[in-house]
Structures are given as structure tokens and as C-alpha cells.
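User: quick one, sequence for these C-alpha cells?
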């Protein structure tokens, strides 16, 4: 069934093409926290929302890497995980308190 590269990338075990799935809980939490950060821009609540958004997206990426239904979903998890790691490194690099 999974003979071609296309099949291996985009089809699940049942042979269905899977690129987009309905949002699962970690994605809903990430979107909600990200939108709430627009409201709480200068409060301690924003720090908590930053942590919640990062954690939920990190968790989602690990789930996709380990349990994704096809190679596309697993690769997407890897790309998101790398982007998260890069964003953390950049935030540390831009923090004047850490550059003393």
C-alpha cells in the first residue's frame, strides 16, 4: 500500500491522505494562550501564558514526532520542535540580564 514516497509521506495506515487534522487539545491551548498574550502584554500573566503556549506546542511536537500518522506529520513535529528551540535560544540571546 505504501509504495511511493507520496504514500509514505501523506497516507496513514488506513491509506487515507492526512495533512490536516482537527485541532487537538495542545493546539487549542497554544492558540488560546497566544491570543490571550495579546491582551496581557505587560503583566505577570503574560509570563504564565508564554510558558503555557510554549509547553503546549512543545508537547504537541513531541506527540507528532512519536505518534504522527505519517511522515509528513512526524516531520512537521520536528520542524516545530526545532523552531521552538531556536526561539528559546534567540530569547536568551536578546535578554540583557543574561549578557552581563
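Assistant:
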Amino acid at each position: 500500500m505504501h509504495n511511493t514516497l507520496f504514500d509514505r509521506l501523506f497516507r496513514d495506515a488506513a491509506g487515507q491522505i492526512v495533512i490536516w487534522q482537527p485541532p487537538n487539545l495542545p493546539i487549542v491551548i497554544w492558540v488560546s494562550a497566544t491570543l490571550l498574550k495579546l491582551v496581557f502584554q505587560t503583566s505577570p500573566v503574560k509570563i504564565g501564558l508564554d510558558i503555557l503556549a510554549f509547553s503546549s506546542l512543545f508537547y504537541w511536537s513531541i506527540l507528532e514526532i512519536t505518534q504522527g500518522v505519517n511522515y509528513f506529520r512526524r516531520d512537521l513535529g520536528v520542524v516545530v520542535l526545532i523552531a521552538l528551540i531556536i526561539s528559546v535560544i534567540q530569547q536568551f540571546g536578546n535578554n540583557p540580564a543574561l549578557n552581563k
